Amino acid sequence: MASRVTYRSRPLQQQVLLRAPGQPVHRHLQRISSDVTREAKALADARLSSGSVSRRVRDASVSGRYRDSFSTSSAQSGAGPRFTVRNTAPHALILERGSRPHVIMPRRQGGVLAFGDGTGLGTVFARRVDHPGTSAYHILDTALRRVMARYR
Question: 46, 55, 89, 120 - which has most CB atoms within 10 Å?
């Protein structure tokens, strides 16, 4: 699942001439969305490379894919411009919002789960895993708050 933050300028601040593509309101929102994307990538680098996250998330292929999956899109409607900053990585929602404790079971009945221990010393087998859940990182939320604080 992807996580995303969508924001729109307030209707009273928009005037028909100023909100058209290339005009001041549109350019301002475009600048904000670019800044949020840049800030989110920097936060992802900082938070996911720290010692407090699991080895799996710190792995460059996982954290790099998350960082590189931030993007900005825009749409124009009668209400004015709308910019969306999103992350399309498969694990984005779990990193952004966290997860509750849950049980992991094999896909096939009678099957076994196999996990590499990350040290290269061997594999751990289990019929059931009680996952403790994960803490949320709130990367997009924090990036949006930080950027909006600069524009106040």
Answer: 89
